[in-house]
Each structure stands twice: as structure tokens, then as C-alpha cells.
Design goal:
The complex is a heterodimer of chains A (76) and B (221). By secondary structure, chain A is mainly α. Chain A has helices at 3-8, 10-15, 23-31, 33-51, 59-71. In chain A, helix 3 crosses helix 4. The longest helix of chain A is centred in the middle third of the chain and has 19 residues, at 33-51. Residues 209-220 of chain B have low confidence and may be disordered. Classes of the chains: A mainly alpha (76), B mainly alpha (221).
């Protein structure tokens, strides 16, 4: 496996998607420092975004939304 | 009446399961619907913000999404989670908002954006450990927001749905009317671009790196 092929399979590896075995991928990782760094920093990128909680909602926005919902009637 | 002098406050009750709240809301319990809203409003607002890019439009999208969800509550069949259902409504509202703003009907969501020649990362180096602890929470939030906002819409919407909202590839493809391979291709490019951008902030001091646009890093075949 070459670096370019590893990049093409990067998402499937990070998400552990698909039925394929990862022996070739991991053998390349063991031998290529740049690809190890790439895989690890991609994983960290995803974790940073995934673990970042959304900012708290301002109370005024919830109040406006509830006022609008109270005025509405569910479709029957 | 309680005369307890126990020093710690009582533990909060466990959250009501989403399915119970949905069933109660479908039975006409507005309080249950409000609890569902409170549970998901911050995430839906952030999702809307990341698609439409400004607070006023994002708040409109949030409001339209929950009003539509309330109006169509009876038709929600619980084949997906309530959250995924609301996300689908919010994405549609946000895309409609963008179309109206652009004055056209089509958004370039299904356009082929590049040839794949951009896939080799510009900089590859180790990051400092625990990058989330390198800056204050607000600073980190701003950095993440700025960087995702700088991606082209087809990339940032796929990244947001897959990696932030946790939707599957198939759900994302269905929601955006894209093929599964198109979602996978956009997700790869989005992840690589964001990684590249964040590397400028989190790379380990003294680690060799190349400036943006430089030749491929040494060692990459």
C-alpha cells in the first residue's frame, strides 16, 4: 500500500466501516510516520468537533420559540 | 416537609427517555414537547448556524424547524430518533433559506468540486497532547467555528451531519439527496481540510512542518 491509497481508505478505517481487513493498512501505518501522524491528527480533529458541546441557548430564543409553538396547532 | 440537614443537594432525576416524551407530546402534552425542544434546541441552532452562517437566519431556521415538527408530530412514525427527524427538517429549512438568499433554486451540493489532486495533506506532524486543553473553552469554540465555516458548503454540511450530529453515511446521503460515495468523498475532503487548518494551531513545537502550499511532505509516496 502507498500513502495515496491509505488516504483513500482513511475514512473507512477511522469509522471502521466495511467488511475489509486492515492488515495492509496497518502494516503501512507501522512503516510510515507521516501516515501515522495523519491518521492520529484526523482522529483528533473529529474528536474535537464531536466532543464540543453546543453553546447554551439564550433564554430569550427559547421564549420566542415557545410563544410561537403555543400559537400553533398540530396538524390533524 | 423536609428537615434534612444533608449537605449535598439531591441528585437530579434521570432524564425522561426520548420515546416517552414523544409519545406524551403526540398525545397533546405541550410540556413534553417543550422538554424535547429544550433537549435539542442548542444543537439544532448550532447546526443551522453552520449551514446558513449568521445568527438571525439560524434562529429563523430553528423556529421553523420546531414549528414544523410540532405541526407534523402526528405523522412522526418513530422510524428514526426524534432528533434525526428534527435535524432533517432543520436541514431542509436551512437549505431553503440559503436558496432564497442566493436568489436561485439550486445549491451546489451535488457538484463535483475537485479532481482529487488535493488529497495529500499540506502539513503532517504530531499535535501536542490534549489539544482541547491548550486554549480556553470559548477560544476553542471560536476556532472550531471559524474553521468549519471556511469550508465550502458541500463539505461543511456533510462533516456536520456525519461527524458532529452523528448521522450515518446513509442518513446523510438521503437527507442531502446525494449518493453514498459522494458523501464519503466529501467527508474525506472535509476531514483533511479541517485537520490541515487545525494543525496550524496544535502542532507540536519544533516539529518540522511545511508552509501551506508547499510540496508534498517528505516520506509521502
Amino acid at each position: 500500500m502507498r500513502c495515496k491509497q491509505l488516504i483513500a481508505e482513511l475514512c473507512a478505517y477511522l469509522d471502521q466501516e466495511g467488511p475489509q481487513a486492515w492488515a495492509d493498512f496497518e502494516a503501512h501505518l507501522a512503516a510510515c510516520r507521516k501516515c501515522r501522524q495523519l491518521v492520529e491528527t484526523c482522529r483528533q480533529t473529529i474528536l474535537l468537533y464531536r466532543s464540543e458541546p453546543p453553546p447554551p441557548l439564550p433564554a430569550a430564543i427559547h421564549s420566542r420559540l415557545m410563544t410561537a409553538v403555543r400559537r400553533a396547532r398540530p396538524g390533524k | 416537609m423536609s428537615t434534612s440537614t444533608h449537605p449535598s443537594p439531591p441528585a437530579p432525576p434521570p432524564p425522561v427517555p426520548e420515546a416517552e416524551l414523544v409519545a406524551a407530546a403526540q398525545g397533546g402534552d405541550l410540556g413534553a414537547f417543550e422538554q424535547l425542544m429544550q433537549r435539542y434546541e442548542p444543537r439544532v441552532l448550532r447546526l443551522a448556524m453552520r449551514i446558513v452562517g449568521n445568527e438571525a437566519d439560524a434562529e429563523d431556521v430553528l423556529q421553523e424547524a420546531f414549528l414544523k415538527a410540532y405541526a407534523k408530530l402526528d405523522s412522526f412514525q418513530r422510524q428514526s430518533s426524534f432528533y434525526t427527524w428534527v435535524v432533517r427538517i432543520a436541514v431542509n429549512e436551512a437549505l431553503m433559506k440559503l436558496r432564497r438568499r442566493r436568489g436561485d433554486r439550486e445549491l451546489p451540493l451535488d457538484q463535483e468540486l475537485d479532481t482529487g489532486e488535493d488529497l495529500l495533506p499540506r502539513e503532517v506532524e504530531d499535535w501536542r497532547p490534549n489539544p482541547e486543553q491548550q486554549m480556553a473553552r470559548q477560544e476553542l469554540q471560536d476556532l472550531l467555528n471559524q474553521n468549519i465555516a471556511s469550508l465550502a458548503l458541500p463539505y461543511r454540511i456533510v462533516f456536520q451531519l456525519r461527524d458532529v450530529e452523528g448521522l450515518s453515511t446513509e442518513e446523510t446521503a438521503d437527507m442531502l439527496r446525494l449518493t453514498v460515495p459522494a458523501v464519503k468523498s466529501r467527508l474525506l475532503r472535509a476531514r483533511l481540510q479541517l485537520r490541515d487548518k487545525l494543525s496550524r494551531y496544535f502542532r507540536r513545537p519544533g516539529d518540522g512542518s511545511l508552509p501551506a502550499g508547499a510540496a508534498r511532505p517528505e516520506g509521502q509516496a
